[in-house]
Specification:
About 35% of the residues lie in helices and about 20% in strands. The chain is an alpha/beta fold. It has a five-stranded mixed beta sheet. A four-stranded antiparallel beta sheet has the order 1-10-2-11. The mean pLDDT is about 95.
Length: about 260
């Protein structure tokens, strides 16, 4: 209840929903852009052409800690060199989403890696070591694509079977799975009702999100999704389109069609 608007890189979780209810806080959930969590390697890495979700799980699951330490343990064709890992810390929404999507449970991860809430630290780490592997938000990859290489991801449950690289066309086609996700703002309903400047700001945000997203290397939603989000805000529809869990691969339009739950 301390902020009028809160940005979020994953949907609100059950315990947060309970806290909001306990404090009498009603919120409006608005998806604003896409992110494509990007698995990145050093530009000198010439052995990883793509990775499967299974290979990523083998690297990042808790059981891998202290055991899966070299590239050739993941794929025998890869070198017998130590994998140097970089990723967001445990308080990050990116960490929550990646672990849910890849490992199968949010916050379930090995801990023996260089963690930072500052994505620039992760970029420098990946850039600085030939044997590095990390994951970062797409915007940071796009801003520093000359310093690292994005790894196409292959997933057996995907619409397509070939590896898919992170890009706006692939996200909009719904084929960069399972690492494509919407990012949100959560608006305090009371603030929106009582303060004109909050209503004006949110309306400006949604009406200009496409242009602003591209400027900062994020991936805009479809025009239809922005129209649906604006309608939700104007109707002051509170609650979340999720059940308090991270759901993988849902189209934004489907989320916005759901009846929000407080």
């Amino acid at each position: 209840g301390e902020t009028d608007i809160q940005d979020a890189s994953r949907p609100i979780l059950k315990e947060e929903m309970e806290q909001a209810r306990a404090n009498g806080i009603e919120y409006i959930e608005l998806p604003v852009v896409f992110d494509a969590i990007t698995v990145a390697v050093n530009p000198q890495n010439d052995w990883v052409k793509h990775m499967t979700v299974e290979e990523l799980k083998k690297i990042w699951e808790p059981a891998a800690q202290g055991k899966i330490t070299h590239w050739n343990q993941v794929n025998p064709a890869w070198p017998n060199e130590k994998i140097v890992l970089f990723a967001p810390g445990a308080d990050s929404g990116t960490f929550d989403y990646f672990t849910e999507a890849i490992v199968g449970k949010a916050k379930s991860s090995r801990g023996d890696y260089t963690a930072s809430e500052d994505d620039n630290v992760l970029v420098r780490g990946i850039e600085g070591n030939k044997f590095a592997l990390g994951y970062i938000p797409y915007s940071y990859y796009a801003a520093h694509s000359d310093r690292m290489r994005a790894v196409p991801i292959q997933w057996a449950k995907n619409k397509v079977q070939e590896p898919v690289e992170p890009s706006l066309p692939n996200v909009l086609k719904g084929i960069y799975n399972p690492l494509s996700r919407p990012l949100f703002i959560y608006v305090n309903k009371k603030s929106a009702q009582e303060r004109q400047e909050v209503r004006d700001f949110v309306k400006f945000y949604l009406e200009n999100a496409d242009v602003l997203a591209r400027k900062v290397k994020y991936l805009p939603l479809t025009e239809a999704a922005y129209e649906m989000a604006l309608e939700r805000f104007e109707k002051m529809q509170t609650g979340t389109g999720f059940g308090g869990d991270v759901e993988i691969g849902l189209p934004v339009e489907e989320i916005l069609k759901r009846e929000p739950k407080q």
